[in-house]
Every structure is written in structure tokens, then in C-alpha cells.
Amino acid sequence: MGQCRFCERKGFFLSVDTNGLCENCAPQVLHDITQRHRIIEDCLRLARDGKTFATRLSRCDLLFEHLEHLLQYENKGIPTLTPSPSDILSEFKGYRDKLIIEEAQKVAQKAKEKSEVASTITAKHNALANGLLKSQEIIRNTSDASVGEELERGFKYLMYKVKLDGFLEAAKKAEFKGNNKKAIDQYQEALFLIRNDDIPDDQQGVEIQQIEAKLIELGA
Ligand SMILES: [Zn+2]
User: Fold this and answer.
1) Distance between Cα 10 and ligand 1 center (Å)
2) How far is the C-alpha of 191 from the C-alpha of 194, rounded, in Å?
3) Organism's domain of life (predicted)?
4) Over the stretch 75-84, which tens digit does the pLDDT of each residue have?
5) What residues contact 202, with CB distance under 8 A and at least 6 apart?
6) CB 153: neighbour CB atoms within 10 A?
7) What angle do CA 158, 140, 193 make, to 5 degrees?
8) What pLDDT, in 10s, does the model give residues 40-64?
């Protein structure tokens, strides 16, 4: 007794082809597979070699759409592609995440470089804040939340350092100019920042001691 793998119709007189399809289903199924095969080939190429990140990402998503459609055939035992849709899917899910993470890291790196060469504390801080926002927007597309958290921690620490260095620099400058009142104020700002950051205070013991010693020296 023959049974069609697609429509599941069966009967003594039902004949199926080598793919296990009845004569009703065979033409439309094969046509569908051929069409999608062509699109998939195109997506595979552009997902890897597309000029921009946006192209590569959108081709990945289009690829998934067509592969998921072909999965319904694969699940019924109808031959489709080699490697199979499920194999390509699992390979490219990982590839898509990698693509996103690399792009986010690239954007983050650019922002950090911009911050390093910026001339004012505010400009340094803004470059980092902007970079954090941009890379978070990109990373939102991935299934891996831990990457975004790590990226955020890195940025937050750099922003904190920029602020802290700003206070310490201003304090030293004021001290140099003999403006003790301003120096004390800036050292106190630095101390407040250290005490209220997310880094455990015992890891910053040396900095805290140095600033406290400075404050005593300046007669605070
Ligand atoms: Zn059929």
C-alpha cells in the first residue's frame, strides 16, 4: 500500500515517486523546494559576503524563514537540500549571533577610541555613553543576553574612570594653582564617586587612602 509523505493519503492504488510523493503533491512540492533552494543559495552567499552588517543580518533572517518552511518537508522524510535544512539552520543560528556580537564589539571599540582622543571630560563621557547605546541596540538582536551585560559593564567602568580621572585632574590643577578650596571640593567629589560606584571599596583601598591623605594635607 502506498502512502504520500506530504498529504499522507494512502491506498492500494496510490503510487508514489522516489521522494515518496503522490502525483498530486509531487509537482507543487518539487517546485516549492526548487524555488526556495535558489533563494537559500543567494541568502547563504550574502549572509557570508554581504557588504554591510545590515545586509548580512537581513539575509540570515530571510534564510531562516525559507529553511523553516523546508523543515516541514524534512520532518515528513521528503528529501530537500544537502546539507539538510535543520543542519543549515543550527549552523547559521550560531553564525548570526557571532555576526551581531562582532558588530557590537566593533562599534564599542570605535566609541572607546573616540573617547580616548576627546579633549574634555564631557566629550570623553559622551562618546562612551553614545557607544554604549549604539552597541546595545545592535546586541538586542542576539539570543545571548550575557554578551550585552558584559559590554555594558565594560562601558560603565570606563565612564566611571573618565569621571574619576576628571575630578582628580581638576583637584591636582587647583592644588597647583594654590586654590585649596577647589582642590578639596574635587577630591571630595572623587571620594564620593568611589564610595558610590559598583566596585567593592576594598578593591579601591589604595585610592581611598591617597585621597583621604590629600584631604587631611589640604586641611579639609
Ligand atoms: Zn500527496
Assistant:
1) 9
2) 5
3) Bacteria
4) 999 999 999 9
5) none
6) 11
7) 25
8) 999 999 999 999 999 999 999 999 9
